[in-house]
Amino acid sequence: MITKVIGLIQLNSPEAFEKYRSQVGDTVALYQGKITSRGIFNHFFWNELECGSFSAFVELEFPDLAHSQSWANSPEYQSLLAIRSQAMKLTLFSVTT
What we know:
Elements: E1 3-11, H1 14-30, E2 34-40, E3 56-62, H2 65-72, H3 75-78, H4 81-87, E4 88-96
Helix pairs in contact: 1-4
């Protein structure tokens, strides 16, 4: 089953974000994933779960949960955590379709 990884992003530093963004796609591809969508948050219609504010989102797709977990825990992605923490606050979760 296809696993999608959704990231909710609260941007801290546009400069750091561009540096992170220029490198993260290569780490995703190493684990048979791809970035399928990126965008800017517009409006909550309902927020009963009281999700915190965010300014953008990203959607990744992997062949299965194991590939997405391998990517998230990979040394390649872990090496980006310092720049990611400068760039943004991130909520990252997976769903299976």
